[in-house]
Design brief:
The protein is of the alpha/beta class. Helix content is 30%, strand content 23%. It binds adenosine-5'-triphosphate and magnesium ion.
């Protein structure tokens, strides 16, 4: 039970592990959120994350503009939109990765279990453990397969059975069978698709609650992409997943909810099937039918 405190971030709920989250009931969804500016969508579902008028600029140039939305637990939410519209910037706000970019200024709130991740008493390192991230290009460390997965656990001083956790993580990332006999081999010898699943295993090893994925399959061939998409679907049972993609078919295939961003603004957010078949906004329709972007 190495549950280091993320300050009082879990204060508003009992310690609900992702495994037991089954749906809408249980802990309060939005503690301390009086009516104003209620984020759209899924008001009846428990929110894993909620943004309130979240904005980002890079040295004064706006990249994300006042986005308020709620990401429900155990759902897959896709962000789509043309290149440069702020998808990655928005995603990085959700686990304070933008802290690492000096030019980035973030304002507004990101609520996780009722706590604003940008409050001064929140530890960003702990945020990133609870809200993991997988990047566009697989970025395994130049270490063995085993050590890649064990890395975060070692850094966190994990006291449990390391081997078991490595195996569980590799199984969860649908990679175990392919690597179980070569755990000591260099991770750099894996294929691109295997490397990406290794990075997912590495992210899962520290037991995050939310997984952020920035175009996790864009560097992969269609077969490897299909495996990642299947994996994402499986992971939904235990995690909340936010995925950025500019592949609209992928968004339609994997996600429950889709957000369309355009020039830093949230144009439309809703049920994926509905958004793709019956968009409410003209700009969404133009984008999904390929008329711009
Ligand atoms: N580190 C940075 N420094 C300065 N400006 C940046 C930085 N990162 C992004 N931007 C700017 O912010 C805006 C949004 O970029 P972002 O990378 O979030 O877009 P995106 O939707 O992820 O695009 P893509 O689909 O090409 O990945 C762009 O105008 C970009 O030039
Ligand atoms: Mg991007």
């Amino acid at each position: 039970m190495p549950e280091e405190p993320l300050v009082d971030i879990q204060a508003d709920t009992a310690d609900t592990a992702p495994e037991e989250a089954g749906g809408a009931s249980g802990s309060p969804s939005t503690s301390g959120s009086p009516g104003a500016d209620t984020p759209p969508v899924a008001r009846d579902l428990e929110a894993a994350l909620e943004t309130r008028t979240l904005s980002v600029d890079y040295d004064g140039d706006t990249a994300v503009s006042e986005i308020s939305l709620s990401i429900p637990r155990n759902r897959i939410v896709a962000f789509i939109g043309p290149s440069g519209c702020g998808k990655s910037t928005f995603l990085r706000c959700l686990n304070r990765m933008n802290d690492l970019i000096p030019a980035a200024n973030v304002s507004g709130e990101v609520l996780f279990r009722g706590k604003n991740l940008y409050d001064s008493d929140v530890d960003p390192v702990e945020v990133r453990r609870r809200i993991g991230m997988v990047f566009q290009k697989p970025n395994p460390f130049p270490k063995s397969i085993y050590e890649n997965v064990a890395f975060g656990l070692r850094v966190n001083g994990y006291q449990g059975d390391l081997e078991e956790r490595v195996e569980t993580s590799l199984r969860a990332a649908a990679l175990w069978d392919e690597v179980k006999d070569r755990l000591e081999d260099s991770a750099l010898g894996l294929s691109g698709g295997q490397q990406q699943r290794l990075c997912i295993a590495r992210a899962l090893a520290v037991e995050p609650e939310i997984l952020l994925m920035d175009e996790p399959a864009s560097a992969l061939d269609p077969i490897a992409t299909g495996r990642i998409e299947d994996l994402i679907e499986d992971l939904k049972q235990d995690y909340t997943i936010v995925i950025v993609t500019h592949n609209m078919q992928q968004a339609a295939r994997v996600s429950d909810l889709t957000a369309f961003l355009y020039m830093g603004e949230l144009v439309e957010f809703g049920d994926t099937d509905r958004l793709f078949t019956n968009p409410r906004e003209q700009r969404t329709e133009q984008y999904i039918t390929g008329r711009f972007g």
